[in-house]
Amino acid sequence: MAILEIIMMGVGTGFISIALEASKEDLPINAMLGSICWATYLYALQTFDNSLLSVFLASFLISFLSIYLTRRIGKPLQVYLIAGIIPLLPGLNIFYMVFGFVNQDSKAIIENATLTIQILAIIVLSLVFASSITRLLKRLNFTKKRSGN
Amino acid sequence: MYDELKVALKAGEIMLRNGSETFRVQYIIKKMLTDLDIISKDVIVIGRAIIVSIEMKDKYPITLTKSIVKRMNNLQKLSLVTKVADDYSKHKISINETMNKLNNIDNIITYPFWLRVIGTGLGTFSFTLGFGGSFTGAVAIFLITLFPAYFIEILYKNNVPYFISNILAGALISTLSLIVFNFYPLLQYDKMIASAIVILTPGIAAITAIRDVVNGDFITGASRGIEAILSATALSIGVGFIFALYVFITGGGVWQF
Asked: What ipTM, to 2 d.p.?
């Protein structure tokens, strides 16, 4: 069942990339990123039983892969990053928040609003971490090459 | 020199209009200003405006500004402009060729309108299954999403403010969902609506906004952040209003999770 979910998340990411007008050659890559993202999220959720940590790990991996693909293919980071993290966007929490408004359930509103903001912040944080580590590795590599010469 | 500035500004304009972050617009413009006579170049991007100023040897400085009206997401245009900027900065293509290519990119239609609408529908279909929903629910949300996806595109083309279009799209999704709910009360509506909302959620705008802030551009980041919050609010108003109306008319709960 989980494999079907992972595949469908990838297929969905590919279709949403059409709506985001990604070029045709990027569609399979984006679909792959969507699947990897969801597989990581599910695996981390099963292992650590913590949704925020799972979001962090999944988006961290996607950020790394996006940075790698950007350098390899020469396209902007957004092309891969945006598509890759779509499965993590907190649609369900926004829905529950709206539902809280309708049912006048303040607890649900606050809980889901906080979670929505936390998820978005964690996605960005993971990207900042991934890009900082990549820069650091690049600099270390550069220094090593210079000292080697 | 003026031509080179115009070309760089055109590239920046396309990038900004199609959802690029501020710092990338600045980077692309600076990268394209390659003339050796340039002593200093300054690029300022605030919200929806670009200001480029260059200073040259023994000449008056030139400043050009450009503002954009609409902003959308087109990943292909971002890729193509980056490639053209790269080629131009490496002197692989001439200035006229670059301008022609940028004009072509600006007018390019990546996918026809119907394909984008169906793509959105199939996206929600797959996401519903991905979230663990049923096949019947996925088919239902596919059909439901086609209407707001079509509607939003039409409203965007007719310059209707995004706040209004998001309210209407949210209302349309919840109305159609409630109609289906009356016929098939056993479907998993939370997963269905969540996957539909993922499409309309301004998550991408929010992430771009936070990235701008992280990169030190607080004004653009804040304005984009407010735009994202307003979009989400509009969506919530649309969905919430219809649900509240339904509860008011029927006198009962919508459904429990």
From this structure: 0.85
